[in-house]
Design goal:
Elements lengths: L1 E3 L5 E4 L9 E6 L4 E11 L3 E5 L14 E8 L2 E13 L5 E5 L3 E4 L8 E11 L2 E10 L3 E7 L14 E6 L8 E12 L3 E8 L4 H14 L4
Antiparallel strand pairs: 1-2, 2-9, 3-4, 3-6, 4-5, 5-8, 6-7, 7-8, 7-9, 10-11, 10-13, 11-12, 12-15, 13-14, 14-15
Length: 219
């Protein structure tokens, strides 16, 4: 069942399009922390269980705290609000989340994504990668770089900071965009990164909007 709001995202009721093993990002709004976890269990409509990364020891979330949960499934982004209902550390470091009543589809109508072929350079962990942006919106893009290159796939993880240098107009000087890796797809030949832009200046945000509007197909 789909309910479409007059303005805003599509809302899917009570059903999660998610698989065990999918990456789940928990954002603590009060402290600004992002925690990359893995879904290891769920029982609808009661709770979800995620495993925290072994190499990371963030501030311990408290039972009753509300968090934003985001995940990618079949190249679609989903978000929902949840409450921390419990945690255990043995035999694994697990967080229990309340099961959502509503899930937002991340592809909002005011966040149009267009296909493109924009040469770009990404600076990741001080490695410069020349690649191609194959789709873009005012909120993020998909960046592809062929392998082998001067970076190892293990260096590119979810939540890795990235700086992009791109030209949105012919013969225009490159613009610098900062963001974070939100999803990765790596094979023997290439790395495909889903990048979410962060802290864009008003000038660059306006340039992106103009570019996307110009090439958005008419309905």
């Amino acid at each position: 069942m789909l309910d479409v709001m007059e303005s805003g995202p599509v809302i899917k009721e009570m059903r999660l399009n998610i698989d065990l093993g999918d990456r789940v990002i928990i954002k603590d709004d009060r402290h600004g922390e992002d925690l990359s976890c893995v879904l290891v269990g769920l029982e609808a409509p009661h709770y979800l269980i995620v495993r925290k990364p072994q190499a990371h020891t963030p501030r311990r979330l408290r039972a009753g705290e509300e968090v934003m949960v985001r995940y990618v499934h079949n190249a679609e982004i989903y978000r929902f609000r949840a409450t921390i209902t419990g945690q255990i550390s043995d035999p694994a470091d697990l967080i229990f989340l309340s099961y959502p009543e509503l899930v937002e589809d991340g592809e909002e109508r005011n966040n149009v994504r267009i296909n493109c072929e924009i040469p770009a350079t990404a600076n990741i962990d001080q490695a410069l990668l020349n690649g191609l942006i194959t789709d873009i919106s005012s909120q993020g893009c998909r960046f592809i770089v062929n392998l082998p290159g001067n970076i190892q796939p293990c260096q590119v993880k979810v939540l890795t900071d990235v700086n992009l240098s791109i030209s949105l107009q012919d013969e225009a000087p490159p613009q610098e965009l900062s963001g974070r890796v939100r999803n990765t797809n790596i094979d023997r030949f290439r790395i495909a990164l889903g990048i979410e832009f962060e802290k864009l200046s008003d000038r660059i945000a306006e340039s992106l909007k103009v570019y996307v509007d110009r090439y958005t197909p008419l309905q």
